[in-house]
Amino acid sequence: MLDSEDEEVQCRTVKIAIVGEPSTGKSSLCYRYLGGNVVAGGGTQGAEVMAGQCLDLRPPVPLQLCDVAGNALATRMLSNYLFASDIILLVYDLTNLQSFEKLSIWLIKVKEIFENDVQKPLMALFGNKSDLEHQRAIRLSCVQKFASEHLMENFKGSARTGEMVNNLFTTLVARVLGIKVQRLPPVIMNGRSPLPKDPERNGHTPLSLQGISSQSLIMNRKALRKVQRKASSSILIEKYTENVRFCIICNYLGKIIPALQSRCTRFRFAPLQQTQIVPRLKEIAEAEGVKISEDGVKALLALSGGDMRKVLNTLQSTWLAYRDVTEDNVYTCVGHPLRSDINKILHWLLNENDFAVCFKHIQDLKIAKGLALGDILTEVHTIIQRVKLPPEVLISLLIKMADSEARLASGCSERIELAALIASFQVARDQVKMDASVS
Ligand SMILES: Nc1nc2c(ncn2[C@@H]2O[C@H](COP(=O)(O)OP(=O)(O)OP(=O)(O)O)[C@@H](O)[C@H]2O)c(=O)[nH]1
Ligand SMILES: [Mg+2]
């Protein structure tokens, strides 16, 4: 009679049958797990049964590995080889598409054999030769689909490097016996050991070829352009998606090719709040010894539109050009109209009765400061809304300004549009005067 649960586990020998097409590395996998090297080839005859122990479980679990030859599929012996197996491991070669496609025939055969058994074996899929990942011939999505369709655990590794081999057997044996794996088995590769397993990945720890767990690759525009130039960039990403998390940072989603977009989860970020920008901006200015005034900060915030990169670029350019980051310097540096200039323009627009004089003043200022009418319109637009005007006057003024901006954008002359702007302000003032005289 058994004294403890431990002893009960110890007495049970777990039988694992390894099946799959010839030359997929089944024998190599068994030898690697039991402490040997990859076999030189030659092929197994019939089936080879090996005894071993799963030392990564406590207490160690006795194992019986049945290495079935690839050409046993067509023989009547297959059912004998698989008899009383607890685990059926279907092995395919990552670099050989046929070895994966033929697995469905293996699966049908295996299911036929165990059709009448009450206790069905645990099925798992193993993609071998991951050291030849660059020669991968099977899409990851196909493998995942196949595994989920047949409710199988899906692993990938290499009998040559030992990647995932210990993990594979330990996870499967623990699953069959209903034991929790306390500790990850050490996969010794280049003297490194893997990082802890992510339980949500169905027992599959994504180890990179070097034995390092998930890496992140953050790409900028230049790096991405290089990847995009390759027609197979999406395949490249798919290929390494098990060990690498790709993070693409961009301003314009439209510039990413659809093939890449469809493989990404998109995160959009709203413009930053002023309270988020100011502390960081001040910290950088202090660390870099940049003199920045309060109105300089406000000007940077106004021009950035919540984009921290714009804030820092403008800060850097202003400092390089003037050494002092003040409001005027910031606006002059980016060629944006100064607030004082806009105030002058607004003053002429709202108070100058002589059309020709008003036109001359604004035109001269435009030429002297190199201002674009589009920028003037944008600034006037924000300020005019704060001026107390009757709603209908403000509405017609805004419509006329919008029309002017549209015409400018389509290439109309700046002089004509400036005249139109002055005229619309004159009309608005006349309307206000008329309303005042009526009331
Ligand atoms: N690059 C690489 N080669 C491997 C790996 N595993 C096995 N091989 C090679 O693949 C060839 C076939 O390996 P075997 O282990 O004999 O294949 P098998 O599946 O047992 O073949 P059969 O017994 O005929 O069914 C050998 O030349 C091995 O050296 C691996 O992980 N990576
Ligand atoms: Mg073999």
Automatic annotation (TrEMBL):
GO terms for cellular component: DNA replication factor C complex; nucleus. Keywords: ATP-binding, DNA replication, Nucleotide-binding, Nucleus. SUPFAM superfamilies: P-loop containing nucleoside triphosphate hydrolases, post-AAA+ oligomerization domain-like. InterPro entries: DNA_pol3_clamp-load_cplx_C, DNA_Rep/Repair_Clamp_Loader, P-loop_NTPase, Rep_factorC_C, RFC_lid, Small_GTPase. GO terms for molecular function: ATP binding; DNA binding; DNA clamp loader activity; GTP binding; GTPase activity. It is found in: Nucleus. Residues 337-424 form the Replication factor C C-terminal domain. GO terms for biological process: DNA repair; DNA-templated DNA replication. Its main location: nucleus. It comes from the Eukaryota. Belongs to the activator 1 small subunits family. This is Activator 1 subunit 5. It comes from Arctia plantaginis.
